């Protein structure tokens, strides 16, 4: 059974006002002082963000328990210095992000200008182990059209700088301003993948391989495929759902590769349209079907994803979990809908943030 790890980026906010606070360095210092697991909590580009990474897990219940524990530990460390954490992919309230110190972050600020000064967004990255780079690239080639469905399921960023954007995932519309971000063409081999990455680094537009921001990539650090399309999910249960679906996609793609089945040849242009459609409506309207690239109800497209990965999920015992989780989101709404419902009930973006901070730790 393939192991899975999750990285989550959380927003640091004032527990009373809901405003983002640039206190990541202080929170990390507190976590170190309290003896937190080494490498669990990490700094990010902006001082208003805190990242954690789980250990690789084969069992989804264990993964869920670790995500919950890490969120609560993050909240505890943040609370000791007067702030809290919220699993929000963008800040509903206006914010001026604070770029972290260090030569790497300063290079990014100077190189990319205004986007680097504005781009405070929080994602969820899922690592699924693979046996080799060759298998990993074969997986990347075959999961491309399905990633937009994961993005729709995770959508959790309807607000930006105090305004409703009309999108379910505005984070995914902001993120592509980085020059290496977005969907990729079919690579065909590990050699072609690594040659492209080397050429991109050699161009000087990006600093190093860590700035390859493809929707899915080979991890620079671990023997994994890293899927990067998801918003940070409001609820830990949604993060687990995204992780188990990601594992199902990786296993299904690897089986197709071993069986000699070719990847779909959808163009990057069509994949961008699918990503836009998922970002715009989440699960409330239509999505592009990953096979036909035609609009169909979100429920139908999510059903197609479950059918596509059904055998792999059944083999790991995750199929019922996946069906239940998808049905819950289709019926009750994603994080984006929860945020809009909070605003409708309270009339206050501050209440949206503080309410979501409570959801984060449940």
Blueprint of the fold:
Layout: E1 4-13, H1 24-33, E2 41-42, E3 49-53, H2 60-79, E4 84-86, H3 103-112, H4 114-118, E5 123-129, H5 133-143, H6 147-154, E6 159-160, E7 163-164, H7 171-174, H8 190-202, E8 216-218, E9 224-231, H9 236-258, H10 268-281, E10 286-288, E11 295-297, H11 298-308, H12 310-316, H13 319-332, H14 335-346, H15 349-360
Antiparallel strand pairs: 1-3, 1-4, 1-5, 2-3, 5-9, 6-7, 8-9, 10-11
Helix pairs in contact: 1-2, 2-9, 5-9, 6-10, 9-12, 9-13, 11-13, 14-15
Description:
The protein is of the alpha+beta class. The chain has a single domain (4-360), classed as Creatine Kinase, Chain A, domain 2, CATH 3.30.590.20. Helices cover 48% and strands 13% of the residues. It has 15 helices and 11 strands. The protein has helices spanning 24-33, 60-79, 103-112, 114-118, 133-143, 147-154, 171-174, 190-202, 236-258, 268-281, 298-308, 310-316, 319-332, 335-346, 349-360; strands spanning 4-13, 41-42, 49-53, 84-86, 123-129, 159-160, 163-164, 216-218, 224-231, 286-288, 295-297. The strands form 3 sheets. Strands 1, 2, 3, 4, 5, 8 and 9 form a 7-stranded antiparallel β-sheet that branches. Helix 9 (236-258) packs across helix 13. It is globular, with a radius of gyration of 19 Å. The mean pLDDT is 96. Keywords: ATP-binding, Ligase, Nucleotide-binding. It catalyses: L-cysteine + L-glutamate + ATP = gamma-L-glutamyl-L-cysteine + ADP + phosphate + H(+). Its EC number is 6.3.2.2.
How many individual domains?
1
Largest sheet: 7 strands, antiparallel
| CATH hierarchy class name | Alpha Beta
Output the structural class.
alpha+beta
Q: Using the alpha-carbon principal axes, give the shape.
A: globular
Strand segment tally: 11
Counting DSSP H or I runs of 4 or more residues, the number of helices is 15
Indicate the mean pLDDT. 96
Distance between the termini: 28 Å
**What is the CATH-assigned architecture?**
2-Layer Sandwich
Please give the radius of gyration in angstroms: 19 Å
- Approximately how much beta-strand content do the residues carry? 5-15%
Amount of helix: 40-55%
Order of helices and strands: EHEEHEHHEHHEEHHEEHHEEHHHHH
């Amino acid at each position: 059974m393939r192991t899975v790890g999750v990285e989550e980026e959380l927003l640091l906010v004032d527990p009373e006002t809901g405003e983002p606070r640039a206190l990541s360095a202080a929170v990390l210092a507190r976590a170190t002082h309290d003896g937190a697991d080494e490498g669990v909590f990490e700094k990010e580009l902006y001082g208003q963000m805190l990242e954690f990474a789980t250990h690789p897990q084969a069992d989804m219940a264990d993964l869920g328990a670790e995500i919950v524990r890490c969120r609560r530990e993050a909240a505890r460390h943040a609370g000791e210095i007067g702030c809290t954490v919220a699993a929000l992919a963008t800040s509903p309230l206006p914010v001026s992000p604070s770029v972290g110190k260090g030569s790497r972050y300063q290079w990014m600020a100077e190189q990319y200008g205004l986007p680097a000064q504005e781009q405070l967004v929080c994602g969820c990255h899922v690592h699924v182990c693979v046996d080799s780079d060759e298998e990993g690239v074969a997986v990347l080639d075959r999961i491309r059209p399905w990633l937009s469905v994961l993005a729709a399921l995770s959508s959790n960023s309807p607000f930006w700088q105090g305004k409703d954007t009309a999108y379910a995932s505005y984070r995914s519309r902001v993120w592509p301003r980085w020059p290496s971000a977005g969907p990729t063409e079919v690579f065909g081999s590990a050699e072609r993948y690594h040659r492209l990455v080397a050429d991109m680094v050699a161009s000087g537009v990006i600093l190093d391989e860590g700035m390859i921001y493809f929707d899915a990539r080979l991890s620079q650090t671990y023997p994994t495929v890293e899927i990067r399309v998801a918003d940070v999910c409001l609820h830990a249960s949604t993060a687990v759902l995204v992780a188990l679906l990601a594992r199902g996609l990786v296993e299904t793609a690897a089986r197709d590769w071993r069986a000699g089945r070719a990847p779909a040849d959808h163009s990057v242009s069509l994949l961008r349209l699918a990503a836009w459609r998922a970002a715009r409506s989440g699960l409330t309207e239509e999505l592009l079907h990953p096979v036909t690239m035609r609009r169909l109800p979100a429920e139908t497209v999510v059903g197609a994803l479950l059918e596509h990965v059904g055998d792999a999920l059944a083999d790991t015992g995750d199929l019922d979990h996946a069906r239940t989780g998808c049905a819950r989101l289709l019926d009750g709404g994603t994080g984006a809908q929860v945020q809009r419902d909070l605003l409708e009930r309270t009339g206050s973006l501050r209440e949206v943030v503080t309410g979501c901070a409570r959801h984060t730790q449940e």
